Amino acid sequence: MNGPKKFRSLVLNRYVLDTHTIIWFLLDDRRLSDKAKKIIHQTKALGSLIIPTIVLGELAVVVEKGRVKGDLELLIKSIKNDPRFIIMPFDIEAFENYLVQNKNLEIHDRIIVATAKILKAHLVSKDKIISKYYKKTIW
Questions:
Q1: pTM value?
Q2: I need a labelling partner for 127 at 20 to 30 A (CA). Which of 36, 76, 113, 114 fits?
């Protein structure tokens, strides 16, 4: 992928998904909020669900450490096979936006918020700290 600029005008309603959101969606976990579940299930446009690369890294760590019961290869395959998902790289534009995010956010959360801001997208996250700093957070 060529980074965020390529996707700015392709889809009107875009949603950036954080790590808990994508894991709980893929594993059909009851902890996924009804609102988040509805957004993901009702979103039909290609490339409308954005997954920052840092989220894939976090997903791998959570599975490798046994914090969730899931097969990493199958989870990644599910993401790759669903045309609604776009993997958003952490490129120079995302990095520059990351630098201006609130320093109270953890590194991965700053990257996720930076991605959502660049794309002017909603961010689907249960994280109350993220929602404090990014007003377009949905849970």
A1: 0.88
A2: 76
